[in-house]
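Entry 12.
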Amino acid sequence: MDLLIKGGHLLSGDRADVLVDGGEIIAVGAFPATDAAEVIDADGLVVAPGLVDGHRHVWQAPLRGIGADMTLPDYLVTVLGRALPAYSPHDAHLATLLGAAEALDAGITTIFDWSNATRTPEHTDAVLDAYATAGVRAVVAHGNPDDERDVRRLAGLRGRVTGALAILGTEYGPWDDAVRQIELARELGLVASMHAGGGPASPLRRMDEAGLLGPHLQLVHLNALTGEDAKLLVDRGVGVIVTPVVEATMGHGASSFSRFADAGGRAGLGTDVVVNAPPDLFEPMRDTLRSHRAHNGTTHPAGAILAAATIDSANAAGVGDIVGTVTPGKRADLILLGGLTHLLDTGDLAGAVVTTLGPADVHTVLVDGRVVKRDGRLVGLDLAGLRRSTVELARRAHEPVTQAVRAR
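Predicted 3D structure (C-alpha cells):
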C-alpha cells in the first residue's frame, strides 16, 4: 500500500482510516496495522472528498480583483475582448499555474477549466504543461472548438488531465455552430459546456427537438430558468453548474440552484471568475445555503450543500465516476480539514464545514493519492512566488482594462 490516512473523521462523524494504493482508494475502515509506505496522522481532522470547481476561467488568476464593479458587458469587452488577446502562451502557462495553485490551496482538487486561453495549439500546450506541473485534476474545456485537430488531441487525454469543449452555444453564438460543436463533443465522448440564461426566449426546447440535450451537455448559470425547462433538463440528464457569488455580484440574477432542485436536479457549484470573486468554493456554498433556505422557507440542512461542491459538480463535469466521494474504487482526491476538533465526536461535521470553514482550514490536500498540500502549506508550489511572477502579466493585461473603464 502507498498510503494510510490514519484516525481521521469522515463527514458522517465516523472515525475511519483510508487506504490508498496506486492513487486509488482501496478501503475505508479500521486498519490497526498495514505495510503502507506513508502514514498520515489525521487525528483531529475531518477527511472529506476534494472540492470540485465545476466552472472556472483559470487563466484570469492574475486579474484577481480588477472587476469589483464590472457588469457583464464590461467584462465581455474588457477582460475577454482586451485582456485575453494580450496573453502569450507563456502568459497562459503562468496564469494557469497560479490559478491551479490557488485552487489547491483552497482544497479544490478538480477544476473544470472553461479555458478561453486555449486560443492556439501553443496556448493549449502551455495550459496542459501548467496542469502537469501543478498536480491538480483538470478538465480542460477547449475554448476554440473549431480547431478540431487540437480538440481531438484533448479528447485523447487520459488520466489526471482530460478534455472537454467550451462553446458559445445557442444563446450567444450561431445555431449551426453550436449544433456542429455539440455533435463533435458527443462523437468524442466529451462534455460540451456553454453559458446559458434560460427564460421564455431560451432555445432549450428547440435544442431538445434537435436531440442536443443529454449528459454530454453542461449548462452554466441559467439565472432565468423556468420550472418547465428545469424539468426538461433533469429528464434529459443535462449537467448544470451555478456560480452564485459572481452571478449576484455582476447582476446576472438570482441563482437557479433552487429552481433546478425543485425539479429534482442537483446543480454543481463553480467559482467562475476571480476578477470579482474569491478563488474558493466555501463562499459559494454559504451563498447557496442562504438562498436555498430563503427559497424553501425552511432550515435546509447545511451539510447537504456540500454535495454541490463535490459529487454534483463532479457529475456535471463528467468525472463523477472517479472523484467526489470518499469511496473505495475512486481516485484518492481528498482533503483534511482542521478547526472542528471540538465537534468530531458529537457535531454535524458536514454542516460545520459549509457554514464555518474556509481555505485557512484546509490542512492537507491529496490528488491521485499524492500530497500536494501538507500541514497548511503547498508542496512543490510557491504560491507567493507565483503571484510575484505574474505581477507584470497582470499589469500588462490590466492596462487595456483600465483604459476601457476610463473611456466609459
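Annotation: The chain has a mean pLDDT of 95. The two ends are 61 Å apart (CA to CA).
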